[in-house]
Amino acid sequence: MDIQETFAGIYKDMPVLVTGHTGFKGTWLSMWLHLLGARVIGYSLDPPTRPNHFDMSGMKDRMVDIRADIRDLDKLVSVLKEFQPKIVFHMAAQPIVRESYENPRDTFIINSWGTINMLEAIRMTTAVKAAVFITSDKCYRNNEWIWGYRENDALGGGDPYSASKAMAEIAIEAYRDAFFPWGDRGENAVAVASVRAGNVVGGGDWARDRLLPDAIRALTEGRSIDIRSPRATRPWQCVFSPLSGYMWLGVRLLLDGAKFAEPWNFGPIDLASDSVQNIVKKVIQLWGSGEWRDMSRGDEPHEAHWLTLSWEKAAVRLDWHPVYALPEVLAKTVEWYKEWDRQGESADMHAFSTDQLRTFTEDAHKLQIRWACPQPSDRIQRTLVRQL
C-alpha cells in the first residue's frame, strides 16, 4: 500500500501549516504529513526540550521551519500570505498543567490569545480553506465522572491550563459563528473545527512533569521513578491515534465543511485506562530494570484523578477508531526510547520513527479504518479539493 494514498490522498502536494511543529505532537504530525507528500510549513518557537524529537529526526531539512511566536499576529498573517496553506493545524501551546501554576498569565496568553491570533490571521487572509484547532481533553469542567465527556458537555477548568483551553474553545466557537459561517460556500469560506484529546504517549517526548518522559529519564540515569499521584487513572492513548483523527477530520472539512465544522473528541480503546503506578510497573518491565517510589504529598497542585472522553461521534460520523490497546501503546513507546538509548547522543531517529508510522498505518488498514483504506472515489475527492 502506498502511504500517500491514505487519507484519500488529499495531502499529497498540499501546503499545510502546522503551528507548534517543534513540540512532541507537532513533530510527529509534521513527519506524518511529510510522509504523505504534503508541503509542510511549521511555525513555532525553538524545541522546548533538549533532547527533542524534532532535531534528532532531521525535520528541519524536510519542511519549511519558521521560528516565531504565536503571539505575533503580524508575523502569522505574513506567513499565511507568503506560503498560502490550504489547511492549518494549530497546535502551538503551553501544554503542561503544573507549568500553568508557575506561569498562569503566560499560559492564558499563549493558549487563549494565541488561538485568537490564529483565527484572526485566517480571517484576514484568503488561502486557508480548513482549520483544525487542537485544544485538550481538560477543556471540560471536570466533575470526576466515571463516564466520558461528550462534545456538548460544559467547558470549564479548575487550573489555569484547563481554563485557558476552555477559553480557546469559546473563542473558536465565536469566530466560527461570527466570521466563518458556512452558508453559501463562497471563495473565502473556511471550515473550522476543534479537537480534544489527552494523555497521549509515544516516543520523542521529553517534557517535564509528564509520566512517561519522567520515567524514561529516571531509567536512563539509573534513578528511581518518583511519582506524585500513583492512584490517579488516565485513559492513555498512542500519539498516532488522535493525530490520525485530526488529519482525517481535516480531509472531511475540505470536502464537506458544513457537516464537520464543530468540536470533536478523540480517545483510546476503553480498556486503555489504568493507574499511574500500574503504568510505571509495566514500563519498568518493558525496559528490563528499574524501580519506582511513591512521592505523593498533600500540598501538590490539583490535577484531575479521573478524566475521560467519549469518542462515539468520531466513530459514527468519521468512521475513526483507535488502533492500539494499552499493552501495544506502551510497548511501541518503550521500543522507541530503547532505540534512542541504543544509538546514544547522536541518535538519528527519523528512519525508526517513520517505520513506526508506516506500521501504524498498516495496522489501521488491517482493521479497515477508513482513513487507512484508499477507495475508488478518492480520486474524485482529490480533484474537488484541488479546485478549492
Report on this structure.
The chain has helices at residues 24-35, 53-56, 73-83, 97-102, 104-124, 160-178, 211-220, 240-260, 276-287, 312-317, 326-343, 350-366, 378-386, and strands spanning 15-19, 39-44, 64-67, 87-90, 130-134, 191-196, 200-201, 225-227, 233-235, 237-238, 263-265, 273-275, 292-294. Strands 3-2-1-4-5-6-11 form a seven-stranded parallel sheet, sandwiched between helices. A two-stranded parallel sheet has the order 7-10. It has a single domain, classed as 3-Layer(aba) Sandwich (Rossmann fold), CATH 3.40.50.720. Helix 1 (24-35) links the parallel strand 1 (15-19) and strand 2. It is 43% helix and 13% strand. The chain is built from 13 helices and 13 strands. The chain has 388 residues and is of the alpha/beta class. The longest helix has 21 residues, at 104-124.
Task: List the keywords.
7-stranded parallel β-sheet, 388 residues, Rossmann fold
Shape assignment? globular
Q: What is the strand tally? A: 13
Low-confidence stretches: none
- SSE order, as H and E? EHEHEHEHHEHEEHEEEHEEHEHHHH
Question: Looking at CATH, which topology would you report?
Answer: Rossmann fold
Q: Which sequence of strands runs across the widest sheet?
A: 3-2-1-4-5-6-11
Summing up helix and strand content along with how strands pair, one would put the structural category as alpha/beta
- Mean pLDDT over the full residue set: 93
CATH class: Alpha Beta
Number of helices: 13
Portion in strands = 5-15%
**What is the CATH H-level superfamily?**
NAD(P)-binding Rossmann-like Domain
Task: Give the tally of structural domains.
Answer: 1
**What is the CATH architecture descriptor?**
3-Layer(aba) Sandwich
Amino- and carboxy-terminal Cα gap = 27 Å
Strand count, sense and closure of the main sheet?
A: 7 strands, parallel
CA-atom Rg in angstroms: 20 Å
